[in-house]
Specification:
It holds the Pfam family DUF2269. Keywords: Membrane, Transmembrane, Transmembrane helix. This is DUF2269 family protein. The chain is built from five helices and no strands. The chain is mostly helical. It is elongated. The relative contact order is 0.14. The model has no long low-confidence stretch (mean pLDDT about 95).
Length: about 150
């Protein structure tokens, strides 16, 4: 095994670790809402925690390993490198500026609503809906990045 191959392994592993869980969030959220709605605040706090730790850390690994690979192979100008890099930057921004704050807000709203009588408010539903919608967009972006990195069009 060459060092390049090892770094490629680290890069791919970083993608799997950072973003794999995000594809399960919709199913986990629906399951929690259906089976134990009182756990929704914990679910949303767990999302925010995973974002701050695993996803952010994984993104850093993806970036550093990818930068090494692109530099070593001299492919920075390739579309299949620049588009996934742009997607990584967008996802990082969404994590810090949207997902983290919105997941924390969803946890607080769910906690407030459940303490007040058990019905989840329209305000909570709106925040959870925004998280779900932007989450779908983020998932699509992840798949686009994986497509570009594997197919290498252009």
């Amino acid at each position: 095994m060459t060092f390049y191959e090892f770094v490629l392994f680290v890069h791919i592993t970083g993608v799997v670790v950072a973003f794999g869980v995000t594809f399960a969030y919709p199913l986990m959220g629906a399951f929690v809402a259906r089976t134990d709605p009182r756990s929704l605040p914990t679910f949303h706090r767990a999302q925010a925690f995973v974002g701050r730790t695993i996803i952010s850390g994984g993104m850093l690994i993806v970036f550093v390993a990818g930068a090494y690979l692109a530099t070593d192979a001299d492919v920075w100008s390739e579309m299949w490198v620049s588009i996934p890099l742009l997607i990584l930057i967008v996802l990082g921004g969404l994590g810090g500026m949207f997902f983290g704050p919105q997941e924390t807000k969803a946890a607080e709203l769910a906690e407030r609503d459940l303490a007040a009588g058990g019905e989840l408010s329209a305000e909570y539903q709106a925040v959870a809906g925004r998280i779900a919608t932007v989450g779908k967009v983020a998932s699509l972006l992840i798949l686009v990045a994986v497509f570009f990195m594997t197919v290498k069009p252009g």
